[in-house]
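Onboarding guide, step 5: your first structure request.
Type a short instruction followed by the sequence, for example:

Predict the 3D structure of this protein.
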Amino acid sequence: MESIWNYRNLLFEGTVVTVQLALASLLFAVLLGLIGATAKLSSNRLSQNFAATYTTLVRGVPDLVLMMLLFYGGQQILNDFGEVTGWWDYLEINQFTAGVFSIGFVFGAYMTETFRGAILAIPRGQIEAGIAYGMTPMKIFMRITWPQMVRFALPSFTNNWLVLVKATALVSVIGLHDLVWNASTAGRSVREPFTFMFAVLMIYLVLTAVSDVGLRWLDRKYSVGVRKV
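The system replies with structure tokens like these:
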């Protein structure tokens, strides 16, 4: 435990990076999920096919493979394109950006199915009633669709978020100084890898426990007036 205390600042810095990575990835995943769900539920066949291809392919690609492809190959593709077009000289994708886009891209596919299922669970009669009442599409979304979509999506959303938090550990492979990277470095320096990995385990448990408390509060907030069966 003395070693953990001596490296507490390093572990804290890694934890902050991990939380930032998870939140940024979640925002990107939610954005892609809403776009994907809208595309799948649209009447446009091209949008439906594009969204279906995205969810099918991405959910079949390991997170680590996609992350490394983006980090190593994506940067080369961008720079080759910039050289051909003359739009930029050189772009560098850092580890944090690669992690956010790859994790967000992967979990965006899961969020797409989560939001699609939640929207389909809303009784169609309520949407039709809003239209008959003269509500604009935005008002229908804010007053009818969004509150119920959140309630129906929360169980699956919670699972996706908890898995996403654990997936952030993969970014240490491409050199991001997150919690796992910093703990591994400290463990090797004092030859106590097990001690520091156990500390990482406990920190991740705390993060997921805090997340669970927050998501349960959201569930109660959006379930007010709803009878539990």
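Each response can be followed by summary notes, for example: The CA atoms of residues 87 and 126 lie 49 Å apart.
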